[in-house]
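Hello support,

Our group uses your service weekly, and this is the first time we've seen a run hang past the timeout. The protein is Oxygen-dependent coproporphyrinogen-III oxidase. I'm not sure whether the cause is the sequence or the server load. Input pasted verbatim:
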Amino acid sequence: MTEPIQNGQTRVTPAGATDGATHDSAAVRAWLSGLQTQIADTLGAFDGTPFATDTWQREPGEKLRGGGCTRILEGGQFFERAGIGFSDVSGDALPPSATAARPELNGRGFEAMGVSLVLHPRNPYCPTVHMNVRMLLATKAGEAPVFWFGGGMDLTPYYGFEEDAQHFHRVCRDALTPFGSDLYPRFKRWCDEYFFLKHRNEARGVGGIFFDDYAEGGFEQAFAMLKSVGEGFLKAYLPIIEKRRAAPYGEAEREFQAYRRGRYVEFNLVWDRGTHFGLQSGGRTESILMSMPPSASWRYDWQPQPGTPEARLYTDFLPVRDWI
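Update from on-call engineer: The timeout came from a worker crash unrelated to the input. Re-ran successfully.
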């Protein structure tokens, strides 16, 4: 049974931990909201265009309860589309995407809170990036709640640069190392396996880190790891776009960017658990699909010409490799 204790905490049994551990939803919620503001303010200043704010609340009687805030920038000077969403919602039953690997949680209610972002620069030499940090709490009357953290970040270039991929992975590794030398190789492998278009036999990008169902060491330790990942995002991404933002490009590069964006759409709609969770649970469609690029294209059985920068993306960057 859930037992209130001091400072707004709740006594719970997290996945893989012993009874008597605690979680603090208020602390997670405050940190997530602050992280969204910090990233939106920093990237808005970088673009020269402030992010618009769309605060929303679920209506009474809807499938989900709660609300959130979407920070969105469209048609900016640098970002063609950039969305940073914070949500804190609850429901009466976990959707199938959340219990596929943990059938013992079937039938539980839930609270899910997190920050998720996808940034689509206009310049094809600047990569798309995704980051997500979240906490999920599974509840059942008469039983202790179960909490876990999930998230990560990954980089999707259109034109690859080894030093950019190396930098991105180095920051990811450094964010995780204080919590165990095994985490980066573990979470990198998980990312490589997760962000993979099985129907294409092709990676989405150069990876990064991904984790789910994480509660190792109890709440304080696991939350500290999540914070390190979230606070490492700007360190990982900002130096890359600062370096590439002025690179000249033409229509051919934009066409290839649109073609590769099509792969991004395919992954998000076909394979992404976050998209499935949101849609299956009755989430807010505009917020769920803000990750989509503003434009994308498909070509029938197209292949890049050998020896071109476009071909090098396939030969040198999409195959799984160690970047550091």
